[in-house]
Each structure stands twice: as structure tokens, then as C-alpha cells.
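Q: Hi! First time doing this. I have a protein sequence and I read that you can turn it into a structure. Is that right? Here it is:
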Amino acid sequence: MLSRVPMPATSGDTLRNLALLRAARSVASRLDVVALPQTSDPGAAQGRGALAGLVDELVVTGEPMERYLRSPVQRARSVLGRPYHQAVGRSRPLRRAVAGQLAAGGYDVVVAAQLHVIGAVPAAWRARTVFDTHNVETARTAAFLAHRRGVYRVAAAPVVAGVRRLERAMVRDCAVTLACSDHDADQLRALAPGAEVRVLPNGADVPPRLKEQRPAGRTVLWLASLSSSANVDSLAHLVDDVLPHLPDDVVVQVAGSGAGPDAAAVLARAGDRVSFLGEVPDARTAMLGADLLLVPLRVGSGTRLKVLEAFAVGLPVVATPKAVEGLLVEPGTHAALAQDPRAFAAEVDRLLASVELRRQLAGAARDLVERTASWDAIAPSFRAALADVTSDG
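A: Yes, that's right. Below is the predicted 3D structure, encoded as C-alpha cells:
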């Protein structure tokens, strides 16, 4: 069960989901997927062609996740203690699709990716469910609201309390819960003592060669799903706080899908200082056309798959410490890290001025992914979780 069809795989959640589908395919006699669409365009393929050789049946239902999350009614309900995640998981189309598949019989295990969709899993099936969290939503929601002003901050306590209740119940009830890092796993175990929580880190497919570093390159890339509140905050931090300190000749590209009113407002403030690419069909292609990846994240949980993807292809990264939380990154060796906006911009300028520094960072980062974060090395742990739930059932 997925909160969006994993093709095209251009965001962290779709990249992880696609990698784990491939891992499951190698051991599953039948693999079916129920997912929300990536777009509301009725003519869109919704990944059917790309996934045809990977899954046996793809059921696409409901509206894109962002439609549910941006509903004014649902936002009001969240203040009353009903988490906005339930707008997705308890939506009628998703619940009906999941119930219909399960009623057909023949399944040994359910995998629910993210808190948004797990509400559609019937209670009787949770003892046979692997819950792949992606993030600790309680922590992510609290951190995001702490950065907001006005009504958001006033409403923070009941909203966070509602998310905490939902997340605790799902972690407690599911057979196995997967966390992206030791840090996330510790938070989930504290949230639901006694629950079976395992670490399944994010990873990347490692291509045979590193990208070439352009001696005169001056293009930087910000790449993320614009449906995520944490990513919109990151973009706002880049535009409002970092961009004023970057040299005028630096070309700033922004790529991302699902842009709502908040993201549109940020892009409007940037004006022609930023080139908005919209949704790109392939994240790696966008990375190959840039000289640096910028990840000025301030809030969030889990680990950033786009950082690992950049490491794998050889694109040097400038990031905040938050952006590499949970990764085995040594500052200055694998990535340039800075919290202060002026310092962040200074790191960007320093790396763009030196192709040799970029080559050093890219080489060390690629080596880190090969040693610790390739999907080939991670997949067996996911297959073991599936096998454990199947044998227990």
C-alpha cells in the first residue's frame, strides 16, 4: 500500500518504495499494489507501463495525497485531534480498494508505506502487516509546527497529540515496524514500548561511473517533492535566507512535483532568480545536469534519499546538518555542511570555485554509499522482515 504510485521515481518516498518493491518481487509468488495516483490527470498512465513487469496487479484509486492533506475541513479536524494523515488512510476509495484486494484472498503479508495509508489496513490484518514508516511523523509534525507562526503554533499541541496517538497505535499493532535510522528507531520504541521495531536504512543504486565535474560549472539544484511541508520549508529557507548571499552568476534550479499554494508563493518570491523545472521524469538526469545539490533542510525525520542518490551519481552536496541526520556523513569529507545561511552560501561558492574539491567530495561520498547504503546490501533485511511475518502468520 503506497501513498502514491512509485513511478516516476523522483522523490524520496517513491525511490524507497520502488527499491523495496523490487526486493519483494524476488521472493513473492504474487505482488499486488494499491496506491494513490501521483497526478489527478485522468489521462496519465500512473506508472502502469513502467510497473508492468514488476507487479502482478496495480490498483490506482482515489485522489493524489495532497488533495486530502490540503482540505480545509481536514485541517480543522486535525486541531480537534484527528491527525491529517487519517484523511488519506480513512478515505473511502482507499479503504474499499484495500478491502477488496484482501477479500480476494491469497495474501500472506501487507506492507504499508507511511502513516498516511496505514489507516486503510483492517485491524484484523495489522498482525500480518509490515509498517514502513519513512519518518517519525510525531517528531516531524512537532518540528514543522514549531517553525510556523500564528494559528499553526497555537494549534500545535492538539495536532501533535493526535499524530502521536495514531502513530503509537500503528507501531504497537503491526507485526514489524521499519525505521530509516537508529535515531528514528529509538523514537518509535519510546513511543510504543515492546513493539517490534527494526532499522531498514535508505539506500541508492550505484551506477558504474561517477558524473564528470565541470570545471566552469555554476549550476546548483534543489530537488524534492513539493507536497511535503518539510520540503516547502526547505525551499523557503533557500529562497529567503540563502539565495541573497549567493553570487548572481550561480544558476539555481528547483525541481519538484505537487506544488501547492505555499510552494507557489515561495517560487513567486524568488522571481527570475530561480529556474523552476517542475516535475522531472528522472531525478538522476536532473542531477547529472547540475554541479551541486543543495539540501537546506530545517525540519523532518527519516533520512534523505536524495542525498544518497547524489552521492551515488557523484554530485557533491551542500546541506544542513539536519539533512544528513541518520547518515554516516563526515562533514567536509562526504558533504559540505552549514547551518547558518551565510555559511551555507559560502560553502556553495567555495565548491563551485574548485573542481578539485568537488571531485574529492564526490569520490568519498560515492565510496560511502558503496560500503554502507547500496540497495543490494539493504534488501535482504527487508526480505527477512517479510519472511518473519509470513512464518508467524
